Amino acid sequence: MAQYANALNRKPVKVDNDRDCTYLANGEKVHLTPAMVKSFLVSGNADRVTDQEIVMFINLCRFNGLNPWLREAYCIKYGNSPATMVVGKETFQKRADADPNYNGEQAGVIVLTGDGQMERREGCLVLDGETLVGGWAKVYRKDRAYPSTAEVSLNEYLGRKSDGSVNGQWSGKPATMIRKVALVQALREAFPARLGAMYTAEERGYAEPVEADFRETPSAAPGMPAPDPAPAVPAAQVDKMPAPPAGEVPPAMEDDFFAGTQ
């Protein structure tokens, strides 16, 4: 997501919070406005999300055909740190399933057993006395002789708070989290046209916001101060979502969303 971070360093933009962006996602029309995103679709501190971040999030969804109302994409904001924009793991799975060349997958954990042996195990089982060290995955395609594989180190992806301790998402379900990281990496390698340039929350040190406790503060980016803790936007607010505007998709809006915004 480095390209998103670079874009956020440009000069500030001002957007019309009522301006509508309409596009197709999985055959359904999705309507988004900056006001909708800020009110209902930011996990963490919605009051601090910037106009640039809102524009980037809407365009991430539009360009990739993602529906954030169905939790296919998330905008996560802590304090004054740049927003993290990620895709739900199930989106990866659904897009792989829809490809006619998809031919199954395997995924699991890598553990150091009590007698010092390294073992690759399907699923997320880690026994007492064993040490979880990573995750692995294989994704098979009908048109390839060999599977796309991924092996990832737990230490590389372990989510931490600003004080260096492991955050709640990763301390509670480390095997589940690292398996997800390995699986989405293998899926992305197997289907780059469908999944390229999209990353999941687990790869950024979080769990998906539907599971996360946003009272915890993640590590600050290098060279940046630690962000302030921020409460989550209550999920119940989604029920108050304004009805999407009726009418056909405005062609110019599809092509030039926020074009020329200063």
Q: Which features characterize this protein?
A:
flat; disordered N terminus; 9 strands; 262 residues; 4-stranded antiparallel beta sheet; 9 helices; alpha+beta
Q: Major sheet, described briefly? A: 4 strands, antiparallel
Cα radius of gyration in angstroms: 20 Å
Whole-Å distance between the termini?
Answer: 23 Å
Shape: flat
Count of alpha/pi helices: 9
Strand/helix succession: HEEHEHEEHEEEEHHHHH
| Percent helix | 25-40%
Which spans of ≥5 residues are poorly predicted at pLDDT below 50?
1-5, 211-262
Average predicted confidence as pLDDT = 79
Number of DSSP strand runs? 9
In spatial order, strands of the major sheet run: 7-6-8-9
Q: How much strand?
A: 15-25%
Structural class: alpha+beta
Give a description of the structure:
With 262 residues, the chain is α+β, with helices and mostly antiparallel strands. 27% of the residues lie in helices and 21% in strands. The chain contains 9 helices and 9 strands. It has helices at 2-7, 34-40, 51-64, 89-98, 154-157, 168-172, 174-190, 192-195, 251-255; strands at residues 21-25, 28-32, 42-44, 73-77, 84-87, 102-112, 118-122, 131-141, 148-153. Helix 4 runs parallel beside helix 7 (174-190). The relative contact order is 0.17.
Please outline the helices and strands:
Elements: H1 2-7, E1 21-25, E2 28-32, H2 34-40, E3 42-44, H3 51-64, E4 73-77, E5 84-87, H4 89-98, E6 102-112, E7 118-122, E8 131-141, E9 148-153, H5 154-157, H6 168-172, H7 174-190, H8 192-195, H9 251-255
Parallel strand pairs: 3-4
Antiparallel strand pairs: 1-2, 4-5, 6-7, 6-8, 8-9
Helix pairs in contact: 4-7
